[in-house]
């Protein structure tokens, strides 16, 4: 075990050699009697024992160095996992681990799994889980080296192997939050690895060698394979459909089978769908990302929304897909829903260790909302719009004005808020010639171009900049719209020629811009077809300013939105009713004397109705 | 983007299974999808998701990469403007090193900026400029090697024009429309207009565009519209008392 931990690739070879040596040795002693060979063996073994002993001593020293409270914690944690005691696991996972991280391991690794193994009876499953936490800590707090990157992949594989390829469903139970974190972290490490791998420069010789050998490590196929396997094993899609059809618990159990009935698999299955959504977005496949969500209903009532981090991530990636599909109204609706949710939940979450992550994602969604709002102005939610103005008021104003200043603002917010895109494939590390060619090529870093030309000539080739350029080319196409709009707002009809003169442009040019403007005021949206797939939708109008060209005359009509009272009144009526009901159901204060209680209740009832009569009268008067 | 965009009626069950299932990742299915693409090219059908599935396989398996297929996919996607199909395809084309192992020089790198330029012109409704660029000598290779094979390519671009014109105009001059459609003789234009079911006005120089939801304008005041479900709580409360 300990040898494996040191350097898995080197260790593998060692083991192979050992086996050869041993079988050879046996053969020699038993049959052929090649004395020479046998003679050479012992010193080698001695040397190995020596190393083993040294390692053993080092391990013992490391073990001794672990603070007693941490040892106690690990034992306790192990017991909780062993007994499938969800409450205790949750406490250990959500508070214990973080507490001791802050106290002892803020800047160093937790003890390696082999060192604490004696504490947990060498339980392989617990050690896998422990390593899951160990590596997550390395990734989030420290700088993972290439061994960490390779080993964390292996540990994930071991974990998923255990879950998927044991005989029947495993007995293990884990808190939902942890299950989400396992999937989330798996994809995060994949993304980090791909980003790191794509930078050929600054790699050491060892790293280049290991990358050349380890082509399968963190491959896109292997990651997708895990996620799809979890989805299929858990029959989560079948589960969701059955639930939507209102099937009974027994029927659902029948449908989803022995794996799907277990919360562990069901949750992992659901989180894997969200994981797929994310992986597809990272790889730039926005349609497929939404397609894997076909069965998932986006709403707040689903039982899967209990893990806030998952809920927030889902909306972030769905919203982003809509931006890349040019469905800005749908993106806006997605962000508004979740940002309101986060806003409401904030009070409960400030103490959670994920709060930082959630508020960072929220901040990026405010930025994306600003982008959508500039491209497709709407008055959907003043509350969120105001919060966006607080954060990105300057950028929003620049984007809304259009023209020269707008593009850098779009770029800035997009690069800040977009997912961390990755390349599906590794640079050709297995081809030393190609690699040295890349290493010797001149650096490609140059500022991305900001002209209003087609932004394809820019030289950044990393995935994020590729998507940025596509997005900016859409934005560029729309850039004359704000100016046109501001002119059209002043008229009900106007000759195209006159408009062209105002703008100091060619009439034909303006007419073509007007077609762009028309196009920009239409969008496919799920409004009105909310039940179907996320890709579904119908064409809607997104602008309050409508116009039409009659030969050379532009006619303009503006829609205004009347003030909305109903929602406010309904909300407050309901609230008042609730207060009233609560009051009525509150027991009266215990009577001091032995007064006739029923009479008092009777009185309060009548006074209740009486009071309301008065209120109604008051309104009338 | 019609409702059938992500599932066109012409898609066969075999393709549907590939597009919607995990079999889409199986490299050995790429041939089926490529055949389907060439079927689309011959018979003026279009299935964006199936074509994206090809690009996905190329993304994961660089050795499958076939530049002609990619170029054909992009040509088909051009005609989907202003829907985002073209950019969705481009998104899946990872940065690719010059592949020295190909026998012939890769035709995609020189054509890619050209196709993107054409798409940008279409997306910005610069139709006359599109036709000028498309007919230019520089694009001879694209025309002779690719678009000529794509049945009805020019008409499919004209449909892009019609979509834009239909939603913007109630009446449009024949000269202008001819320029947008690249139909330069009155006979060609009249035949095309007639096929659309549009009519010329009495002077013969202006085409009437039939009314449709996008070219009808009306100043409205959007009043709020309260639906019964919003009031269920209030009403049920009233019923209780």
From TrEMBL, chain A:
Keyword Cytoplasm part of the UniProt annotation: yes
Sequence segments annotated as region (Disordered): 433-459
Keywords attached to this entry: Cytoplasm, Initiation factor, Protein biosynthesis
Keyword set includes Protein biosynthesis: yes
Origin: domain of life: Eukaryota
InterPro entries reported for this sequence: eIF3l (IPR019382)
Family of the protein in this entry: Belongs to the eIF-3 subunit L family.
Role according to the record: Component of the eukaryotic translation initiation factor 3 (eIF-3) complex, which is involved in protein synthesis of a specialized repertoire of mRNAs and, together with other initiation factors, stimulates binding of mRNA and methionyl-tRNAi to the 40S ribosome. The eIF-3 complex specifically targets and initiates translation of a subset of mRNAs involved in cell proliferation.
Protein's name according to its UniProt entry: Eukaryotic translation initiation factor 3 subunit L
Native organism: Marasmiellus scandens
Lineage: Eukaryota, Fungi, Dikarya, Basidiomycota, Agaricomycotina
UniProtKB/TrEMBL annotation, chain B:
Domain of life, source organism: Eukaryota
Keywords carried by this UniProt record: Cytoplasm, Initiation factor, Protein biosynthesis
Domain PCI: from-to ranges: 46-224
InterPro entries membership: ARM-type_fold (IPR016024), CSN8_PSD8_EIF3K (IPR033464), eIF3k (IPR009374), PCI_dom (IPR000717), Transl_init_fac_sub12_N_euk (IPR016020), WH-like_DNA-bd_sf (IPR036388), WH_DNA-bd_sf (IPR036390)
Location relative to the cell: Cytoplasm
Keyword Transport among record annotations: no
Function in brief: Component of the eukaryotic translation initiation factor 3 (eIF-3) complex, which is involved in protein synthesis of a specialized repertoire of mRNAs and, together with other initiation factors, stimulates binding of mRNA and methionyl-tRNAi to the 40S ribosome. The eIF-3 complex specifically targets and initiates translation of a subset of mRNAs involved in cell proliferation.
Family, per entry: Belongs to the eIF-3 subunit K family.
Quaternary structure annotation from Swiss-Prot or TrEMBL: Component of the eukaryotic translation initiation factor 3 (eIF-3) complex.
Protein name: Eukaryotic translation initiation factor 3 subunit K
Species assigned in the record: Marasmiellus scandens
């Amino acid at each position: 075990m300990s040898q494996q931990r040191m350097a898995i690739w080197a260790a593998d070879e060692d083991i192979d050699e050992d086996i050869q040596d041993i079988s050879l040795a046996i053969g020699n002693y038993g049959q052929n009697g090649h004395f020479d060979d046998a003679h050479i063996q012992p010193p080698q073994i001695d040397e190995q024992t020596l190393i083993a002993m040294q390692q053993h001593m080092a391990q013992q020293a490391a073990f001794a160095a672990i603070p007693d409270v941490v040892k106690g914690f690990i034992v306790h944690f192990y017991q909780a996992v062993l007994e499938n005691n969800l409450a205790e696991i949750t406490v250990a996972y959500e508070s214990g681990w973080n507490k001791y991280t802050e106290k002892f391991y803020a800047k160093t690794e937790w003890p390696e799994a082999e060192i604490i193994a004696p504490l947990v009876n060498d339980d392989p499953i617990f050690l896998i889980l422990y390593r899951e936490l160990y590596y997550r800590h390395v990734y989030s707090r420290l700088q993972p080296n290439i061994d960490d990157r390779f080993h964390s992949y292996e540990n994930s594989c071991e974990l998923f192997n255990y879950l998927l390829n044991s005989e029947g469903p495993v007995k293990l139970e884990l808190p939902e939050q942890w299950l989400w974190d396992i999937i989330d972290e798996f994809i995060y490490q994949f993304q980090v690895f791909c980003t790191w791998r794509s930078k050929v420069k600054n790699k050491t010789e060892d790293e280049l060698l290991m990358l050349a050998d380890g082509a399968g490590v963190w491959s896109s196929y292997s990651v997708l394979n895990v996620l799809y396997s979890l989805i299929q094993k858990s029959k989560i899609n079948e589960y969701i459909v059955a639930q939507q059809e209102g099937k009974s618990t027994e029927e659902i159990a029948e449908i989803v089978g022995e794996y799907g009935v277990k919360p562990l698999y069901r949750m992992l299955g659901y989180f894997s769908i969200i994981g797929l959504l994310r992986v597809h977005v990272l790889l730039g496949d926005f349609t497929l990302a939404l397609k894997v969500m076909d069965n998932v209903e986006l709403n707040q009532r689903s039982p899967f929304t209990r893990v806030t981090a998952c809920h927030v991530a889902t909306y972030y990636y769905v919203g982003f897909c809509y931006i890349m599909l040019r469905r800005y109204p749908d993106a806006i609706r997605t962000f508004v829903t979740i940002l309101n949710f986060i806003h409401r939940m904030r009070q409960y979450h400030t103490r959670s260790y994920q709060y930082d992550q959630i508020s960072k994602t929220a901040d990026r969604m405010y930025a994306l909302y600003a982008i959508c709002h500039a491209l497709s102005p709407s008055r959907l939610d003043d509350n969120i719009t105001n919060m966006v103005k607080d954060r990105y008021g300057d950028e929003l104003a620049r984007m809304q004005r259009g023209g020269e200043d707008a593009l850098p603002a779009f770029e800035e917010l997009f690069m800040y808020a977009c997912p961390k895109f990755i390349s599906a494939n590794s640079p050709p590390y297995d081809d030393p010639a190609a690699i040295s060619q890349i290493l010797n090529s001149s650096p490609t870093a140059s500022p991305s171009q900001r002209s209003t030309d087609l932004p394809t000539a820019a030289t950044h080739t990393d995935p994020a900049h590729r998507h940025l350029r596509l997005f900016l080319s859409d934005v560029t196409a729309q850039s004359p719209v704000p100016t046109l709009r501001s002119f059209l707002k002043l008229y009900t009809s106007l000759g195209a020629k006159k408009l062209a003169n105002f703008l100091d442009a060619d009439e034909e040019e303006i007419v073509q811009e007007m077609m762009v403007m028309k196009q920009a005021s239409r969008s496919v949206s799920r409004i009105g077809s909310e039940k179907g797939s996320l890709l579904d939708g119908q064409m809607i109008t997104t602008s309050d300013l409508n116009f039409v060209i009659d030969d050379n005359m532009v006619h303009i009509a503006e829609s205004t939105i009347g003030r909305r009272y109903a929602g406010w009144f309904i909300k407050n009526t309901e609230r008042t009713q609730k207060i009233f009901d609560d009051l009525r159901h509150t027991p009266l204060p215990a009577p001091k004397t032995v007064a006739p209680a029923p009479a008092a209740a009777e009185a309060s009832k009548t006074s209740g109705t009486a009071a309301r009569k008065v209120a109604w009268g008051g309104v009338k008067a | 983007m019609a409702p059938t965009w992500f599932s066109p009626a012409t898609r066969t069950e075999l393709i549907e299974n590939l597009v919607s299932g995990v079999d889409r990742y199986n490299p050995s299915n790429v041939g089926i999808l490529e055949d389907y693409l060439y079927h689309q090219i011959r018979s003026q059908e279009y299935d964006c998701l199936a074509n994206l599935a090809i690009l996905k396989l190329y993304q994961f398996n660089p050795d499958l990469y076939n530049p002609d297929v990619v170029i054909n996919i992009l040509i088909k996607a051009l005609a989907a403007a202003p829907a985002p199909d073209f950019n969705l395809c481009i998104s899946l084309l990872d940065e690719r090193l010059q592949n020295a192992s190909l026998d012939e020089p890769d035709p995609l790198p020189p054509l890619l900026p050209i196709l993107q330029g054409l798409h940008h012109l279409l997306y910005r409704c610069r139709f006359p400029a599109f036709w000028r660029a498309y007919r230019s000598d520089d694009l001879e290779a694209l025309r002779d090697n690719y678009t000529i094979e794509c049945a009805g390519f020019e008409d499919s671009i004209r449909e892009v024009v019609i979509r834009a014109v239909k939603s913007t105009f109630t009446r449009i001059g024949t000269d202008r429309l001819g320029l947008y459609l690249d139909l330069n003789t009155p006979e060609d234009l009249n035949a095309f207009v007639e096929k659309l079911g549009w009519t010329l006005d009495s002077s013969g120089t202006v085409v009437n565009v039939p009314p449709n939801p996008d070219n009808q304008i009306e100043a409205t005041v959007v009043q709020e519209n309260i639906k019964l479900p919003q009031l269920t709580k209030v009403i049920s409360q009233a019923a209780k008392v």
